[in-house]
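Structure in, sequence out. Go:
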């Protein structure tokens, strides 16, 4: 005869094993300071021995909190967004908070469905990379929230955490100039994405500051995917190329696809084509050559977003808009042709 399922331990079981009252157990689990060290130790040992777990639903009904947060990101298969989710999860876990993660797939309708699900789940707040341009659900959301990512720029009065894209692009353009590539081709995402406009604006500002006509830069666009980068690189290679053969790619997945296209064309990176990525996903370290890239602080964005959201839930002052700095990660995909550029410049004078 099979045994039935083990009965779940209750707070009464813990109290009996520890030899204290039920209210004492409750105060220990709530983190009360008005408990002796000896009683707290007995309760915690009893909790471990019985396998007791708090009923968070019941606690939430009493406190008005569910102990859950929501996270809506555009593409959980993209390693950058996975890093954001991991940072958010790790930070939430420090406060014994669960995180519900949804992927909108860059679709406004899917995003709206997820937001409704979060409301039904009675989460305490949400972190959102807004896909919809007008975000009609914003006023109706009815919960504390924090925006993340480039899309948050459409809502300047809303609390948000993201990468400092202007600083990141300057880092990339500076290393390109230093390595002898002052006018690289650009590989950008779709015109519908705000990140594309921010990236291009920062490149133009850098060029104008260095007295370079931004109109001379070759521009290709595609999806933020490996296949998108492969196709865009193929189009660049098929057309006329002005200046040094270097490409500044606005997404590491696209950059990895571009490297595939270079090999398929019988060329070498960086000897024939230099490639600079943008995101800092782990896969870039395992390509050949390793992808030189501008690393965005994905995990830190997730951590800071949770911290800002918890502050907002607790009624502490808002943080405003937070832009976290990016950093250059040098590997092997960017050639240094500065010496030959200097020779050519001197010879042409």
């Amino acid at each position: 005869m099979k045994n039935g399922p083990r009965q779940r331990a209750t707070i009464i079981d813990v109290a009996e094993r520890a030899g204290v009252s039920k209210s004492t157990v409750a105060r220990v689990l709530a983190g009360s300071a008005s408990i002796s060290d000896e009683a707290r130790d007995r309760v915690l040992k009893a909790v471990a021995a019985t396998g007791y777990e708090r009923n968070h639903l019941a606690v939430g009904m009493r406190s008005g909190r569910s102990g859950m947060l929501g996270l809506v990101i555009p593409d959980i298969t993209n390693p950058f967004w996975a890093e954001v989710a991991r940072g958010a999860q790790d930070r939430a876990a420090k406060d014994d908070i669960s995180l519900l993660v949804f992927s909108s797939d860059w679709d406004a309708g899917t995003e709206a469905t997820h937001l409704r699900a979060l409301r039904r789940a009675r989460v305490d707040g949400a972190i959102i990379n807004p896909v919809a341009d007008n975000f009609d659900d914003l006023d109706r959301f009815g919960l504390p929230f924090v925006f993340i990512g480039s899309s948050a720029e459409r809502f300047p009065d809303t609390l948000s955490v993201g990468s400092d894209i202007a600083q990141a692009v300057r880092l990339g353009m500076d290393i390109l100039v230093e390595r002898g590539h002052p006018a690289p081709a650009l590989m950008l995402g779709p015109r519908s994405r705000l990140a594309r406009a921010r990236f291009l604006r920062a490149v133009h500002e850098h060029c104008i500051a260095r007295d370079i006509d931004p109109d001379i830069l070759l521009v290709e666009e595609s999806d933020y995917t490996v296949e998108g980068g492969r196709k865009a690189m193929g189009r660049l290679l098929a057309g006329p190329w002005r200046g040094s053969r270097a490409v500044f790619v606005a997404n590491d997945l696209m950059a990895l696809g571009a490297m595939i296209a270079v090999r398929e064309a019988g060329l070498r990176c960086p000897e024939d084509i230099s490639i600079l990525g943008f995101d800092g996903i782990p896969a870039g370290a395992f390509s050949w050559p390793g992808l030189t890239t501008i690393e965005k602080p994905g995990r830190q964005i997730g951590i800071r977003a949770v911290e800002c959201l918890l502050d907002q839930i607790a009624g502490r002052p808002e943080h405003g808009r937070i832009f976290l700095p990016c950093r250059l990660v040098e590997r092997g995909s960017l050639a240094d042709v500065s010496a030959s550029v200097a020779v050519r410049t001197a010879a042409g004078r």
